[in-house]
Structure formats: C-alpha cells, structure tokens
Design goal:
Blueprint (H helix, E strand, L loop, with lengths): L1 E7 L4 E9 L2 E4 L5 H6 L11 E7 H9 L10
Antiparallel strand pairs: 1-2, 1-4, 2-3
Length: 75
C-alpha cells in the first residue's frame, strides 16, 4: 500500500497523511495534522526540516526506519 508521509528530519517524527486506495488518495490523521504542523517550520521555508513523500510501506521503512528515523509519531 502506498502512503504519503511528512517526516521531520530533526526530531525523527513522521506522520502518515494519506493512504492510496485504488487510484484515489484517502486523507489520514487529519485531526492530528494541525498540531503536527504547528510545531514545525513549513516546507516552503529555507530552514525547514520537513520533507514529504509518497512511499510504499517497504520503501518507507527501509529508507527512514532502518536509517535512523525510528520514532513513530502516528501511523
């Protein structure tokens, strides 16, 4: 399953914000998103530590979990 994540590279927290079901994206964790974003620098600013991306489960865990991002914020 593909998911869209926001990852804070400084605190190593991440949030799954959407799930792909068929051809459509379904929002996920929308109640938590404002609180998550309010404590971080927006992606559009130069000193941002947030990155976003679309990953399938195996690729995300291989790239972020095994390589140092090991704090689960909300899945």
């Amino acid at each position: 399953m593909n998911r869209k994540y926001l990852v804070d590279t400084e605190t190593h927290e991440y949030l799954c914000i959407a799930l792909k079901k068929g051809m459509d994206w379904v929002p996920n964790n929308q109640t938590v998103l404002p609180g998550f974003m309010s404590t971080r620098t927006p992606e559009t600013e130069l000193d941002s530590v947030l990155i976003s991306g679309e990953f399938n489960d195996n690729v995300f865990f291989e790239k972020w979990i095994r390589n140092g991002t090991n704090v689960l914020f909300q899945y």
